[in-house]
Amino acid sequence: xxxxxxxxxxxxxxxxKGFIRSPKIRxxxxxxxxxxxxxxxxxxxxxxGGSRIWDWRETNTHHKxxxxxxxxKEITEKGVDVLIIGTGHNEGxxxxxxxxxxxxxxxxxxxxxxxxxxxxxYNSLVQNTSKRVGGIFHSCC
Length: 141
Fold this sequence. Notes:
The chain is of the alpha/beta class. 21% of the residues lie in helices and 24% in strands. Strands 5-4-8-6-7 form a five-stranded mixed sheet, with helices on both faces. A three-stranded antiparallel sheet has the order 1-2-3, covered by helices on one side. The radius of gyration is 14 Å and the shape is globular.
């Protein structure tokens, strides 16, 4: 278990002193993801201490060519150790190699899987490790 310095902020969402953990995803259904803090999104980005909607229009994202480095850049800048990508319930969103390379080039572990399994993995890592976990999740196809 890692130790955290007193200079780190504690937001009250974990019992480890000075540790900011990512919000867990409480519920998920087709087209909706609800976080433990009550935030609700169709598609979302999450990181230690925060979350927001993943608006595909910001980066002109489409199912193909898929998730671009610009889609995950914001999350990588939050200092995450691992980034989970949920590609939809039926894996309808493509993740090109240059996106996973972009993540790995920053010494961030990347895990790509169908959203149902990705959310389980994400919540498990958030709950059971001291890793700083980020995620980007598509809640439909």
